[in-house]
Amino acid sequence: MRILPLGTGPFAVPTFRWLLDSSHEVPALVTRPTQAAKGREKTSLNPMRDLAEERGLEVYAPDSINTEEARQKLASWQPDLLVVCDYGQILSRELLAVAPLGGINLHGSLLPKYRGAAPVHWAVYNGDAETGVTVIHMTPRLDGGPCLAVRRMAISSNVTMPNLEQQLSYLGVEAVQEAIEKLSRWDRVSPIGEIQDQSQATKAPRLKKTDGAVDWTRTAEQIRNQVRAFKPWPATYTHWLRAGAEPLRLLLDQVSVDSRTEQCSFPPGEVILSDSKQLLIATGSGRLFIHALQPAGKRVMEVAEFLRGYPVRARDKFGH
User: Fold this and answer.
1) DSSP string covering 174-226
2) Region 81-105: what's the mean pLDDT?
3) Are 110 and 150 in contact (CB under 8 A)?
4) What is the pTM of this model?
5) Which CATH superfamily is domain 3-200 in?
6) Measured at the alpha carbon of residue 12, what is the angle toward residues 10 and 17, in degrees to the nearest 5?
């Protein structure tokens, strides 16, 4: 089969590598333009482009994939199928029509749950016990096509978003293989795949910087999940509201929930304990230990090192 991949980020790399090593014909890579990193000379990471150039493959990176120029360019490769993963643009009906089999998309959730740009982040944020990947036959509606293949996996209670996303990217290779095999036998007329239950659909919107702000009225477990979910960006942050000084912005890098169950009389965001080795904060329900954090303009520090330079005291406030 002649397959044209569209992808940009690291989630797509294992599938792209498999396609290149398979018996399928891959004429080129379609990816997003590589943007210069803000304030730096070096460019931002595009691992799909890197792999394509390493293999001597032509790379096409239009600003918009849905122009007539882009449609004609993709049609010139005469693909049987488009394979889309971690690409960053929604494909129009006219663009999908350049391939007789249309397109498939590898998505990092158990659809219809977590449709959108950040499914892995929100699964960790919400403390889900299970996730997976879904390959859909694409429609112009966001993540709304019928499901061709699904793979499930448990979410470890301590896994962070980058590690879980990597695990899912490898899980997706087998799902894409299954979907391509189904399409190779398809008569192109009969219904294919399992229709998504629209009543079960939830959204996974693109993250904003403000999503990282800690709401200390949430539970200790919810805040711990937020720290796990929002690595490396937007990160999870709060402020130490210092008496007689400007608030100090702090990124929370490693935290844990206090296992003791006795009732806490401290209001959310107040420091319960601060000694040479421990920093314990009250939340809306439960208490949160901070083990590593990053003051504004500084590197990440273990809490003992931080407390040597920053005299946080019991009854100090964390918030915004």
Assistant:
1) HHHHHHHHHHHT--SSS--SBPP-GGG--B-PPP-GGGGB--TTSBHHHHHHH
2) 95
3) yes
4) 0.93
5) Formyl transferase, N-terminal domain (3.40.50.170)
6) 105
